[in-house]
Amino acid sequence: MSAQNPAPLKKPRLNAKLLRRIFVAASIRRWNDQACPVEFVELDKQAHKMVIAYLFAKYEECEGGEIDWERLIEYFCFDFFERVVLTDIKPPVFHELQRYHRKEFAHFVISELQSDLGEYEFFDDMEHYFKHPPQHIEKQILQAAHYYASKWEFDIIYHFNPYMFDVGNIKAIIDKEVERHYNLHGMKQMVLFKQIGEIVTMFGQLRFQKRWSQTPRVPATSVLGHTLVVALCGYLLSLDLGACRQMRINHFLGGLFHDLPEILTRDIISPIKTSVAGLDEQIKAIEARAVEEKILAHLPESMRTDIIYFTQNEFANRYKIEDFTHYTKDSVELFASYNSDEYNPVCGEFLKACDHLSAFLEARISMAHGISSADLIQGAQGILDKRKDMVVNGLDLGALFREFV
After folding, report:
1. Which of 94, 246, 252, 297 could hold 235 in an S-S bridge, CB 3.0 to 4.6 Å?
2. How far, in Å, are 104, 235, 335, 391 from residue 244 at the CA level?
3. How much is the average pLDDT of 48-65?
4. What's the confidence (pLDDT) of residue 116?
5. Phi-psi map region of 313: left, alpha, beta (phi>0 left; psi -120 to 50 alpha)
6. Which three-class secondary structure state does DSSP give residue 210?
7. Is the pLDDT of residue 310 over 70?
């Protein structure tokens, strides 16, 4: 009797072209007509926006509201890709044009994204979203988070030079937009409680921590921008991975929050962590203590539970039974037995591959721009050697790494 042929590997719909489009956001400068004390880029703004949206959404749930988390993530993705396509239009002009030419803009954005996203299940919903903006609470939350993140940026610019032309007017407009969203419980928390605003600022400071800080790189992505790339890859790949709805949500949020402890310890490079016996464990203990004291102590219990789940043992395969976390070394077992919403599962080894994919792209894209170094070459090659043949639940993740060679 002849042996059965193994099932063919599934190729991800995520590809090199779409990944490069995502990374374009790291090169889009914000407020480039203002005197900025630091450089603001779109990728960081979008990451900060989503962190704030998470906080707003959790506060709504704390007050008895219902949030469709996958809808929130999808709407965020729609906004993100639209912003990347329409990068050259200043917001006031864009909003004015949208009033009269919304459908024409929507058609243009959809036609630009067709080749990158057309195969995804959400593509038709995205077109409808652009042409007929929804009134769901998830959309309101994202709008509020957008303006709050913009206010956070512009407050820095305003205090740097409040006498530049039109700066006072821009600040007044943004502040008014933020005030329009005071009906959201999360916005009230931000305004009334200083410690909640400080947590948002701590997240924002991850914009200023640059990845690969010991070598020149273009674009010089930040820790915060990196987390969004991991989150986007985690979500888009989860749609091919056969992950249940809750696992898809967890992979996005897990990617977004996985580097949260670096607010308090900075980005300690892997060679340092691995070259000294026991150092990585000691760093983890310091990070956990700092996160507890500086962040978790000021948040509601539901957020504390989430952030602990997403930041402690962030790359372990895990699931929950009756609120207790269980671990498995084998992703095969995780998908075979616990790939169901009730188990709140996370495939940590998959998220680690997404983390490596983002790092690999950071190095390879810089090299393609002509900015290279021994660290970038060796780092990219090391990741490629480790991940080029990786398969999770029948999905050929290694294809993404091989495609960039």
Report:
1. 252
2. 35, 11, 9, 18
3. 96
4. 96
5. left
6. strand
7. yes
> Average pLDDT for residues 361-371, to the nearest whole number?
95
Q: What type of residue sits at position 250?
A: N
Question: Residue 259's closest CA among 235, 284, 236?
Answer: 284
Query: Which of left, alpha, beta for 30 (phi over 0: left; psi -120 to 50: alpha)?
Result: beta
The 3-state DSSP class for residue 163 equals coil
Tokens of 44: 């960081």
CA 257/CA 251 separation, integer angstroms? 10
Per-residue pLDDT band at 289 (split at 50, 70, 90): confident
Q: How far apart are the first and last CA of the chain?
A: 40
Beta bridge partner(s), residue 325:
320
Give 266's pLDDT tier (boundaries 50, 70, 90).
Answer: low
**Partners of residue 56 on adjacent β-strands:** none
Q: Are 256 and 231 in contact (CB under 8 A)?
A: yes
* Poorest-pLDDT segment among 93-97, 186-190, 216-220, 312-316: 93-97
360-375: b (≥16 Cβ within 10 Å) or e? bbbbbbbbeeeebbeb
Which residues make Cβ contacts (< 8 Å) with residue 395, sequence separation at least 6?
Answer: 9, 10, 12, 237, 240, 241, 242
The CA distance from 70 to 65, in Å, is 15
- What is the DSSP secondary structure assignment for residue 346, as one 8-state letter? B
Domains and CATH numbers, the chain: 16-192 (1.10.3210.10), 223-402 (1.10.3210.10)
Question: What are residue 287's phi and psi, to 5 degrees?
Answer: -60, -45
Cα distances from 317 to residues 250, 309, 325, 327, 351, in angstroms, run 12, 11, 10, 6, 9
- pLDDT confidence band for 363 (50 / 70 / 90): very high
